[in-house]
Amino acid sequence: MQTTFPRLMLEHAKSRPEAPALREKVYGIWQTLTWQELATLVRRMACGFAEAGVQRGEHMVVIGENRPRLYAAMLAAQSLGAIPVPLYQDAAAAEYRFPINNAEVRYAVVEDQEQVDKLIELRSECPQLACIWYDDPRGLRKYAEPGLSGLDELIAAGTAWDVAHAGAWDAELGRAAPDDVAAMFFTSGTTGNPKGVVHTHRTLLDRAGAGARFDKLTAKEEVLAYLPPAWIGQNIFSYAQWLACGYVVNCPESASTVMIDLKEIGPTYYFAPPRVFEGLLTSVMIRMEDAGRIKRGLFHHFMALARRIGPALMDGRAVSLVDRWRYALGNLLVYGPLRNTLGFSRVRLAYTAGEAIGPDLFTFYRSIGVNLKQLYGSTETAVFVCLQPDHEVRADTVGVPIEGVEIKLQDSGEILVRSPGLLKGYYKNDAATAEVLDADGWYHTGDAGFLDASGQLKIIDRAKDVGRIVGGANDGAMFAPKYVENKLKFFPHVKEAVAFGDKREKVCAFVNIDFEAVGNWAERRNLPYAGYTDLASKPEVLELVRECVEKVNADLAQDALLAGSQISRFLVLHKELDADDGELTRTRKVRRGHIGEKYGVLIDAMYGGKPEQFIETPVKFEDGRTGKVSATLKIIDAKTFPAALRKAA
């Protein structure tokens, strides 16, 4: 696309000035910002930044939930040629140290007191951090920190600067080019310090436009922006595609009101990782288990029908008139009210990405009339690589390469991508850039997969994580930990799993239960418990998890390639894996190496044949306090199954 983000914003302001651009819920009331109002706000903010000394090519961190004035701050920075760097708002202060110092950040725009406190805490280690502007002034009245001020003051200063320097902002805006750096996103850092992924206006807008054309997105779409802006998935859907298409982005009041806001807005275009769809379904099933017998029976009757014919109807395949009539009745009594309860009554298109989604979960949403599809991409590819076409949607693929994308598979199974949306490089890390971008312009994704007969891409695992079983009955068998973990996580009672087995004679696993789902399960059985650790250790819960593990094993046994990945032993961890404890990334990806080191005593006990093992683990609480959680964990043996014979071609 031969343009930039600020120019697109000005085009919308010129062609449809009174159309809503952003909405924000404040004290329970939705407030609307039109495109013209946004353009005025961006101009004043940009002039305020100029007055403060922001220079072309400088980095500016932006930290907070989705907020209209934080979006405006990113546009304002880009209009001056500065580079916004969104960071995760739920990260601890120490996690900001590397990005701020690596990008030599002097300026920060943050949401509220919580983020201000984190940056003030870091100032001794990041002495170049000169100015911090905040959006929400609550709690900050008596702060006397040098360089700290509110966005209201910035806007007022910018308004005066604009009058004194007539035409200066317009001239600066005119200097911007599509190949200028538009933003930098730091990766999750699963194996070390995060890497700054550099993207230009062209790369981000090219992929945003390709995705919009693929799904025929228009300015009439409504989007709810509730995921972290630092995650490129949210940034593409609610920033790049927002400006490319001109639709409305709605910002929830808070994380706790997202479900209410989702129902009020009724988005037409929705994006969430599988864990969100899992959580929504878990809450529905919990409520349904507590419903009366007649209501519960009606639900299960029509859901059986939906699972049988719903996906066929969604894919445009032939269904008998009788079944169509029965489905219409189910839509009136069950599916429609259920979509409304979930906030999906107006969803025309929903996407999930980031992790594999369970086939049962995927089918559930499509069977009740939600056009849920999968996509494949990453921070480095500006998200859109493969998308699923309507009427060609399957649970076991991530779609076909879209406009501008080429895919090549290496002999090792690694997926290579060539696309106009590829990163410019990793910031200050030429060695890492050379590892993933070759001389012919191919990006080495690190994912292993293959294209099936219909041209759709299937992902197996991260290429570096695919290993081999060594010794025992399955010597030489492939081990794909993520594939195994995802199969376990398809069960509503399992929240997280970590599998081990590379260069070992069998596979063992850690499991985190879903506290809400298992807690409800326990309460319906009059099983008392006092917190997560107690519930996770109950013999009844261990048996419940064992049943899940053995169902996964039975399923794996049907795949001759992965039958050796069946889980022989497992334990249920005494605490939930947590990003604050370094066990997960901020996008909830398992940091397998760190977990392996931290819980080495448990791994040794599982492979050593022990029936139980005591462990004491340090934890960090939300309020910053630290403590310890200890327990003696039972180690459970799981039944494994003979591998199915590969059918002759």
The CATH superfamily of one domain is known as: ANL, N-terminal domain
Q: Supply the number of helical segments.
A: 21
Q: Assign the CATH architecture of one domain.
A: 3-Layer(aba) Sandwich
- Look at the structure and give the mean pLDDT: 92
- What would you call the quaternary organization? single chain
Q: What is the CATH topology of one domain?
A: Rossmann fold
| Major β-sheet annotation | 5 strands, parallel
Percentage of residues in DSSP E strands = 15-25%
**Strand ordering within the main sheet:** 4-3-5-6-7
Shape: globular
Instruction: Specify Rg, calculated over alpha carbons.
Output: 26 Å
| Helix percentage | 25-40%
Structural class: alpha/beta
How many β-strand runs?
Answer: 29
Describe the structure.
This protein has about 650 residues and is α/β, with parallel strands linked by helices. Among the domains are: about 5-200, ANL, N-terminal domain (Rossmann fold); about 390-460, Luciferase, domain 3, CATH 2.30.38; about 465-635, ANL, C-terminal domain (GMP Synthetase, Chain A, domain 3, 2-Layer Sandwich). A five-stranded parallel sheet has the order 4-3-5-6-7, sandwiched between helices. It has a five-stranded mixed sheet with strand order 12-13-14-15-16. β1 and β2 form a beta hairpin. It starts with a helix and ends in a 12-residue tail after the last strand. The model has no long low-confidence stretch (mean pLDDT about 90).
